[in-house]
Specification:
The chain is an alpha/beta fold. The protein folds into two domains: 5-124, NAD(P)-binding Rossmann-like Domain (Rossmann fold, 3-Layer(aba) Sandwich); 128-286 and 317-329, Dihydrodipicolinate Reductase, domain 2 (2-Layer Sandwich), CATH 3.30.360.10. It is built from nine helices and 14 strands. The protein has helices at residues 14-26, 40-50, 59-63, 80-89, 104-117, 131-142, 175-191, 288-300, 310-329, and strands spanning 5-10, 30-36, 54-56, 70-73, 93-97, 121-124, 148-158, 197-204, 211-220, 224-231, 233-244, 248-251, 263-268, 278-283. An eight-stranded mixed beta sheet has the order 8-9-10-7-11-12-13-14, covered by helices on one side. It has a six-stranded parallel beta sheet with strand order 3-2-1-4-5-6, sandwiched between helices. Helix 4 (80-89) links the parallel strand 4 (70-73) and strand 5 (93-97). The longest helix is centred in the last third of the chain and has 20 residues, at 310-329.
Amino acid sequence: MTEKLAWGVLSTAKIGREKVIPAIQASALGRVAAIASRDGDTAARVARNLGIARAYGSYEDLLADPAIAAIYNPLPNHLHVPWTIRAMEAGKHVLCEKPVALTAAEAGQLIAARARTGRVVAEAFMVRHAPQWRRARDIARSGRIGEVRAIQTFFSYFLRDPANVRNRADIGGGGLMDIGCYAIATARYVFGAEPQRVAALAERDPEMGIDRLTSALLEFPGERHLTFTCATQLSAHQRVTIVGTTGRIEILVPFNAPNDRPTRIAVDDGRDLFGGGATQEDFPTADQYALQADDFVRAVRGEVALEFPIEDAVANMRVIEAAFRAAAGGAWATP
């Protein structure tokens, strides 16, 4: 049996502690062998709680560990590119949390780092590895719901803590960067295309400066549209509807899909407004973070090509930047 890939984790961030580290530990192809924090005691405590063998009191010490083959980077957004490049230069492959950078130009530095180091680097959009999303994309492209012309996405939560990194505008916080990026990435995933122009509105928190309510319209080739709203100070809600000329697909919990119960999509042929033509498809319990990690390991081993190379992350950042420009200027913007 092939030995599992040894992962190291940069920081004790909540998403790592609660989602990604347990998923890698339970994955088929990887194991978390070490974790680092700028506070050695914190690193040691988290390592004990999560069954991680080694803890480091600095990121540099983790990157110097020769037994670590891959790094998961869940640092705050402004630290994604600098520490991902340092990890690659230390000989590590890197799976970096989204959004991968603060700007498209900064994200582009990872293309050069990949060429220079020969390491695999990818952005961690776990939803694209989830069974319900892969099935929804297959149905959308099959013609079963006709010609797919529109996607509507809503993603919100309520968070007012000014100390939380998602509420710090100076380091890449705000709704569009944190969750609007999912709406953009998944529409690009389903349509298999890049948007041609973007219109947007953004309402900012007067104290923290982050966009707390952002809505956008993206026009894709073939007269196809994405409309989405993301919010950081509204009731928690998630829904994606993919609409074609003869039916629609609804992904009921599209982003924070549970790992302890089946997931579900609904497909409706549109014969009436009361669900008379609706069917449901259930998917066995799975962990989208574990699936993401295993797909990354396969790419590291050279068994498959990376399905979403870092160029995809750069393209997503271009659209995010266009949405910010459109909201600021009150006019269409081109990615």
